[in-house]
Design goal:
The protein is an alpha/beta fold and about 240 residues long. Helix content is about 40%, strand content about 15%. The longest helix has 14 residues, at about 50-65.
Length: about 240
């Protein structure tokens, strides 16, 4: 069966997908990557371009001998997989764009990228990681999955945080959405503080062969807030 490749977002890591790896065990292989500068690869040199991340992911999958795969990207990871979908379109069976958009500088984000950069420089990496990861949950720090998610986020170095923000700030795929050829699903929590509905609607309207799943009473981390529903949506689309 076609494996599923998971690409995390800004200050994420492969460990955040444990619920999906276990849920799909025995049904399909799941590859949860750690991007350079984040998670288990926090020791690696950070990358400051979305296109650079895309090439790194393709090289990593080549190294694992994966010629064809399903691809899911969350948040910044959704930007990365959009680039991969244009880079190696013939290798992607199905594409999932999760809590993401077609531009890096987001109108309606809980704070501007410039503000995030300034606060990260002032407050330090660990405090920034905990503060921003709280925005991913509808219940902020009170969410059951918050502490585990924050622990993964704090592995990101100060350099990786600035590089990730630079990568998003420099990127836009808005004029290339019609070049995505794989059958696509967009997943969005209706309480997302990072990606407003306007960004989701653009993906849904402009990506060819695109479906939409809106999950109520979730913010930016649907896979941690309502994991069973998230897994069911993903499995239904891939099956």
């Amino acid at each position: 069966m076609t494996p599923l490749v998971l690409v995390h977002g800004f200050m994420g890591g492969g460990a955040q997908w444990e619920g999906q790896v276990s849920a799909f065990a025995g049904k399909r292989d799941v590859i949860a990557l750690d991007l350079p500068g984040f998670g288990a690869n926090s020791h690696m040199e950070p990358i400051d371009r979305i296109e650079g991340f895309a090439h790194w992911v393709v090289d990593a999958l080549n190294g694992q001998g994966l010629s064809r795969f399903h691809l899911l990207g969350h948040s910044m990871g959704g930007m990365i997989v959009q680039e991969i979908a244009r880079l190696v379109p013939d290798r992607i069976e199905k594409l999932i764009l999760y809590a993401t958009g077609s531009v890096g500088v987001l109108p309606g984000r809980f704070e501007t990228i410039a503000e995030s950069k300034a606060r990260a420089h002032k407050d330090g990496a660990a405090a920034t990681a905990r503060r921003i990861s709280a925005t991913w949950f509808l219940d902020w720090e009170e969410a059951p999955a918050y502490e585990g998610c924050a622990a993964i986020a704090t592995r990101a170095s100060a350099g990786a945080i600035q590089a990730g923000l630079d990568a998003m700030e420099k990127w836009s795929g808005a004029d290339k959405l019609d070049r995505i050829s794989a059958p696509t699903l967009v997943i969005w929590g209706d309480g997302d503080r990072t990606y407003p509905w306007s960004q989701i609607e653009r993906l849904w309207a402009q990506v060819p062969s695109c479906n939409l799943a809106v999950v109520p009473e979730c913010a930016h981390a649907v896979h941690l807030e309502k994991p069973e529903l998230f897994n069911q949506i993903v499995d239904d689309f891939l099956s």
